[in-house]
Amino acid sequence: MFFYSLLDPCLYILRFASKLEFGAKTQQVANTALRLVQRMKRDSIHSGRRPSGLCGAALLIAARLHEFGRSSKDIVKIVKVHESTLRKR
Questions:
Q1: Each residue of 26-37: b (16+ CB within 10 Å) or e?
Q2: Considering its fold, how many domains does the chain have in total?
């Protein structure tokens, strides 16, 4: 049995953020997404979840906070999760 909560979602955020092409604001968007994931961890929302789904949700929120027009379909293509999974996270 493999536990997904052992994998830290923070490890994937910068890689996914660079693939989403935020330009000069890539680091800022990644930092915001990292803070969101850390908050999820503090509230124990992350346990039992695959890290890519959490990263995708955090990046989608962070992109919108930084006024980037990324859709959930853009995130799904990079993160490789289903759109319904992204919505649930």
A1: beebbebbbebb
A2: 1
Q: In sequence order, what are the residues at sequence separation of 6 or more whose Cβ sits closer than 8 angstroms to the Cβ of residue 53?
A: 79, 81, 85, 86, 88, 89
Q: Phi, psi (5° rounding) for residue 43? A: -90, 5
- What residue ranges of the chain have pLDDT lower than 50? 1-5
The CATH number of whichever domain residue 18 belongs to comes to 1.10.472.10
In a 13 Å sphere around the CA of 40, the CA atoms on its Cβ side amount to: 25
pTM of the full structure? 0.83
CA separation for the pair 12, 68 (Å, rounded): 20
Query: Which domain does 64 fall in, by range?
Result: 4-88
pLDDT number for residue 88: 81
Tell me how far apart the alpha carbons of residues 42 and 63 are, in angstroms, rounded to a whole number. Answer: 22
Helices H, strands E: what count in the chain?
5, 0
Residue reference for tokens 């990046």: 59
